[in-house]
Hints:
By secondary structure, chain A is of the alpha+beta class. Chain A contains 7 helices and 3 strands. A 3-stranded antiparallel β-sheet of chain A has the order 2-1-3. Chain B has 3 domains: 8-229, 4-Layer Sandwich (Aldehyde Ferredoxin Oxidoreductase,  A, domain 1), CATH 3.60.9.10; 278-430, Aldehyde Ferredoxin Oxidoreductase Protein, subunit A, domain 2, CATH 1.10.569; 447-663, Aldehyde Ferredoxin Oxidoreductase Protein, subunit A, domain 3 (Orthogonal Bundle). Chains A and B meet through β1, β2, α2, α3 and β3 of A and α7, α9 and α16 of B.
Amino acid sequence: MAIEALTQEDAQRFARTVDSAQAFVATIMSPSMGARAAQLTSVEMVNGFLQAYTIDDFKSVGLRLDIHYVDFGFLAQWLDEVIGDAGLAAEIRALHETGEAFGLLVHKVKEVLEERLVHYRVALGEEQAEEQLAESTV
Amino acid sequence: MADGYAPRILKVDLTTREVEALDTEDYKDWGGGVGMGAKLFWDLVEDKTLTDAFDPRNVVSIGGGAFAGTPVPSAARSAVAGLGAFGYPVNWFTTSNFGGRFSAMLKLAGWQMVTVVGKADSPVWIDIRDDKVEIRDAAESGDGLWGLDAHETQKAIYEIHGADGTWRSTGASRDSGRTTQHPAVLTIGLAGENMTRIASLIHDGGSGAGQGGFGGVFGSKNLKAISVIGTGSIEVADAAMVLDARLWAADQYGYQVDGLKSFAISNPCQVFSGMPSASTGFGSPARPEGCMNCHKSCHGVRAASGLGNGSHCYDTQIWQVPEKTATGAVTGETQGRLADLMQALSINALALDTAGFWLGKLNEKGLVGTGKLVDTDIFEKYTFGTYEWAEEMLHRMAEKREVGELLAEGPARAAEKIGRLEEDVKSGDLPLQEWGYPHHYDGRTEVAWGLGSLLSSRDINAHDFNWICMWTVTLHTLYGLPMPVEAEEMANIIAKKTPPYNDPMIIDMSDEGMYSESMAKLVSWHTAYYMYYKNSMGLCDWAYADFVNPYGENLEGLTGIAEPKYVEGVTGRVEPLEDGIKRGTRIWNLMRALYILEGRHRDQEVYGDYMYEVPSMPVPGYMLMSTPQCVPVFENGEWSYKMVAGRMCDRQKTEDWKSIYYEFEGWDPASGWPRRSTLEGMDMGFVADELEAAGKLGA
């Protein structure tokens, strides 16, 4: 990924947990439940939310299928405007603009997110990364 | 001639503790289930302005249709009909239903329906053993059922019956008088006993009538359970024809282990042709289990006990979002244990979901906590999203304890009580789409679901068009796969299968199509179909209607061909689908008349404000229900599939559409009330007379 290296200060900001008013809103949809909104408050949480399912997973799941859906255009906007990580936002936006289907893009988006989370960890240092990124998932 | 119906309807008066047998013959025109339940309500409730479900005069009927207990595939549904305690602003006449064995066992005992009137002066349960009916003491002084949870109650009744899987005699009958079966028990847990409005009725492992609030109605009648064991048989008009129809349906349209056919992704949404559902979610082992005579078996039995065995619907999924956002994971352990607990306490899963979502929003605003607007310590003592939070909330609601006392009234009444209803529904923080029911499927995008619910008395929960028009299309779109059928072909197939309209434009869910006369046809046809074939005759919502099927010739499903075969084989009646739709329309008009006598006017038929004011798409700063729904649209002279996320309902256009719909149904557009000519045309002059006497006949 061609995202710029991070300062520790930037990493602290990008890896933070925002309050609920600034949360990114995603959706879990399933046949029986309909759709339910999920409030995601950090980059780590967005990554954890996304499922890298394959088509075969859906064939075997039966009626309890669920989709963890994120609009990647909105995600890029949120990363830009709320989180402030313009580099990550640009990467996600570029993927979104390919027009590829969600189920194909989700694997690529997760790869980008996971790589960026590594950047955060490196910039933060091991101890702080553990503390900050752990916080953001709870 | 034998026609699949049991000969009698059991009327139980809990006030006088007397039982009476009504003649099923008088009610056969209504199909069974909801249709018979509506007519029984009409006949037995003198004051039809009654809108308090807890009033002893409320009459609740339970049972299935002509298909129940026969080899008709996926036809084991039992309906519940009466005033439901959950409805808002009043307790409209409403319906609910559940799977399992109850309606079939009732018929094997010789009863088509059971109708409960009055209120017992102390806890009782009804013990039906073929033609013997006993109202028994459920209190500690008697059989000690009161206070037990729904699982314990069933087990206790099995023990009272001495049911241990071996042959037992229940007396002489036309057949053997012997059975190895457990009785079929419909019961309530603590939430029902305490008359909460969010209580469900529970049967077997995982079957339940969740929506409607009928668990609280049982509680209000001091009725703990209805148990039935039958050793007779169900006589049909032409047994060979019924068997042929089943084999034809299963062989031609059901899943085939050898030569499996599937849509590219949406096997779970292939309603009739889907595989048995063994899974509990990704990675958790289970085996299929089904309702009586189902060819498909969509319930699942897990490898471990205590994890929602038999549960398969949203009770197994309802806590996904809170758990995922709180802990970063969704676990089978939490979801399964909660499903079991909701069943044990008899709480509708949507009540937990809505309570969590709404309280979470109020908590963020600082309105929840000790001494605050919502006075509770639950967020202080437990972490929201965890099993422990949900477990505690379920117990508080069932026991009407602390914040549970407020939430046991259902979300609309709870919000009204603390002065938040208008504001929170408008913002979508409390997404109550219609009649106080929590948002389920989104009427902004999936139009027919929303409009059908708006005209009814609850979230319709009827997936007929949802499976093929939304789920199949959405899944294939999201995963970039070729569609099983293109939009124009789908429109033509569905047109062929929806007589008498046969209009391809009915599935046009474009911005224009959603307010069209064709949409009025769709809502009318859909309502009639599920009212008759499903809610009354007993077909399952997770198997019908089957419009597009990978095994069918030209991908056409069995709907339109199968239903008349089943009706003829079971009842002996030659009844094309078009005539079945007429029967459904008649049931719908009877229910409409009940709503009207309860005070319904077109002015009340409006969505929660968020439906008109908040787009159905997630945007930062908004917390709302959203979904990437893709549906068929006809735009610029062409059919296509289109993602319609982000859409809102237009208030004026919705009102204009209502006028089109009312006129289409033969109702007065000014009021939404049926006209005499409409009712008399359906041989319901008696309904017109009563509406006229009440000054509520359409002009």
